[in-house]
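Hi P.,

Sorry for the delay on this. The queue was packed all week, but I finally got your sequence through. Input first:
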Amino acid sequence: MTPYLVPPEEIDRFWSFLEHGLETVKLTDETVEWTLESVNNTAKNGAAYTVLGVKDDVAVGFFMGYPQPDGAFFVWIAHLHLGYDLGEGIDMLASFAKDLGCTRLIFGTNRRGWERIARKYGFRPTYWEKAL
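Then the structure:
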């Protein structure tokens, strides 16, 4: 999986893909505090990186996030289409964050499934954190 960093001025070009993934996330987690409009605004003003995961020239997922002052990369939102390798997606995200100089990945979620999946990929709870 290859990362494609979407420049803020190109968000509209990819918005339908992002919107579909965001809607899917909302269906599985009714506690999300963002709206489609707030995500769009955040992406367009460059307050978070928007990165597509590309496999065989097809976008198969995305993540949005930003570096923290303590060296962590906070994964704000992420989505991967069913049937694609989550481990490969996490590796892509980790590589992207490491290239920015980050030393950890962190994310927060109320989705119970991460309690059994996150440890498998090297995260530990506080938030969910992984050393890079």
